Amino acid sequence: MAPSHTVRILDGNTFVVCEATGDIEATPTEPTGLFSLDTRFLSKWVLTVNGERLNALSYDDLQYFESRFFLVPGLATHYVDAKLSIIRERAVGGSFRESITILNHDEKAVDLEIRMDAACDFADLFEVKDEILNKKGEIYSEVEPDRLRLGYRRGNFKRETVISSSVPPRYDRNGFGYTVHLEPNEQWDTAIDVQTLAVGPGGRDLRMGLRVHGTERLALQHDLEDWIAKAPKVNSEHGQVAATYRKCIVDLAALRFSPLSLGGQTLPAAGLPWFMTMFGRDSILTCLQTLPFTPELSATTLRILAALQGTRFDDFREEDPGRILHEMRYGESAAFEEQPHSPYYGAVDSTPLFVVLLDEYEQWSGDGALVKELEQECRRAFTWIDDYADLIGSGYIWYERRNTDTGLENQCWKDSWDSISYRDGTLPPFPRATCEVQGYAYDAKVRGARLAREFWGDPAFADQLEREAAALKERFNRDWWVADGGYYALALDPEGRQCDVLSSNIGHLMWSGIVDDDRAEQIAHHLVGPRLFTGWGVRTLAEGEVRYNPIGYHNGAVWPFDTSFCAWGLRRYGFADEAAVIANGILDAARYFDGRLPEAFGGYPREQTKFPVEYPTACSPQAWSTGAPLLLLRTMLGLEPHDGHLAVEPRLPVGMGRIEVLDIPGRWGRVDAFARGRLDLHQLGD
Amino acid sequence: MPDATTRFFEELDRQGYEPLLAKISGALRFDLHEGPQTTHWLVRIDRGEIRVSQEDMEADTVVGTSPELFDDLVTGRENGLSALLRGDMTVTGDARLVVQVERIFPGPPHAQGPHRYRKGVR
């Protein structure tokens, strides 16, 4: 997707992806632009001085919502002679604001023609990687005395980009320009404001009254400072751990997203740049990872997902009563039903995970009121699991898409088309059932039983859920165990045949608790063994499988989020040392990305490449990659809520030195956790 | 023969309680515009208890559509959130109310729901 030299700043789902000069010249291969509401609002934004393009000396991402570019006219080969400096400073927050400063370093006065070419194709986010040829609506450009209006109209659907400037320029339909005379050492400034409007027929913006925090630069700054101040502090001898943690907390702030029409509550969006929206699965898993540090995200995520829980059958959106959504989008393709994201429900894991998060959140926060508030939603979720998701009547959650044009074939986290296969590499027919989702369903029932007993006053329902969970565990251990491999199959086909490949999904099974105790050690060995563990993390598919490819998205690449749940699973079954091994691998990898783990990196062995090879099109920052170091900290420190207290039982590698986590929030108020690395990883390998 | 919109609101009023709206309270007014004429439906919700009238009174949320589109919404032929994104349905005031009330509109009339699998029958 976006090459690494692009610069990204954002606020909620308004963001800018641009070149190192600050310019935007969108192409299908470099889909830069100003985006909001899943729509591009600027596809061209090019600054020239006397007809010349500018060259970047440097740029800084000051905060996630602002950046600064130092530029000179001309090409790299002769810019050393430049007598002019141009500074572009920009921020997003409600609108997009750019200030331009030009300094004349020459001993002579200069006359300058400063021009910004501005245009927009109003591409839907789903179109930006294609040539945009056949927009169904009309694109227009209107020059007004004090502004330039770029717009797109299709029926009542209207999106407009409105550009104005503090120094009045000459506007034309393709941009605007200034004629400037600068004496020696004189400076010139202007502030440009770009509004992104989603206007309805009444002239009101779709987003009106929706802001959680102020959008002025100072308000954004204060909001970020508050967010950082509220989160626990991490200090470490191994300085990188603390630095990675701080980076993650700031990135989580950036990834907060306030869905339209839900009153300004925020939840973690999935990732920048292409996933700045709510995803049931990504938001829930990120909340689970970050609960010890930013618990408020969980409460809002649960409320928002509950408010949009499915209520009816809709085959296009794959909606069923009780189903938790997969993805919400606000662009033209969702509006005109060319894509199903209004919202789309094609995921089978977000519904059980919803219950899992609610229980985990209560154990940390003591917020029983929310458990009571969401009782009916949980009951509907169980109805979905038991009835609508069991397409075969075999007691498992299955999927087969009903939207065969634009729906997802694989409705689990490994959602690429070729992610589920038999050992011979062939793909199974539908419906399919993947193993980790059965684990989530088991965990949801066990946890739901606790909620029913302690909060809903329904011990009979609790007993029923426990019986169902026990039966599911027994059935699962019978049907999914791959005897000749000593692990669980990735999936079952409709005839009950196993997709008998070794995959990272077995780590999620450990986390869910569905693994029989006498099989846990075999699973633990696989997770830290050479076929799955690269030294950095756990491969999505084991080396040696027919479809294994170190840069196969779900067929061999390492996903830090995935590995973090494997570590949690290992710890759950008492394999604290093995958990520390893979936690250590991911935290080491984070150093190579300045603390910002990408979505995925290559599954090459650590000793072969010496550094983690970033997956070519990985999205960054991504919420559940950002959450991974936080979950790994929890795992290594053995942080567990226990009878209203926070238990701490650290198992750290020697190289980690001392780690302290201060002010961990929860039902206990705020407590600190201290740990010292005592674990010799080399001994473990022997 | 009343239209689908009238039947929808009359049925909602008769139903009296809607569990899907148990968490919300507020007044929502639907203004159905047809040329110079506007038909009003006022839905008062008090934690799931519902009363419907045709008063043109202040409301927390005012929703505007054409009568044709609203007929399609209450029969499942059109989707409320898509209509909102398209600008064919407008909202002023508290948008949360309309997002919640939209959930009680039916699904598409020909929706099949989950495909049950039976061996040998595809």
From TrEMBL, chain A:
SUPFAM superfamilies membership: Six-hairpin glycosidases
Domain Mannosylglycerate hydrolase MGH1-like glycoside hydrolase: 377-592
Gene3D superfamilies, alphabetized: 1.50.10.10
Coiled coil: none
Protein name per the record: Glycogen debranching enzyme (Alpha-1,6-glucosidase)
Domain Putative glycogen debranching enzyme N-terminal: 10-192
Residues that span the membrane, as ranges: none
One BP term from GO: carbohydrate metabolic process
InterPro entries named in the record: 6-hairpin_glycosidase_sf, 6hp_glycosidase-like_sf, GDE_N_bis, MGH1-like_GH
From TrEMBL, chain B:
Domain of life: Bacteria
Transmembrane segments: none
Family matches, as SUPFAM superfamilies: SCP-like
Pfam families reported for this sequence: SCP2
Domain SCP2: from-to ranges: 11-105
Name of the molecule in the record: SCP-2 sterol transfer family protein
Source organism of the structure: Micromonospora phaseoli
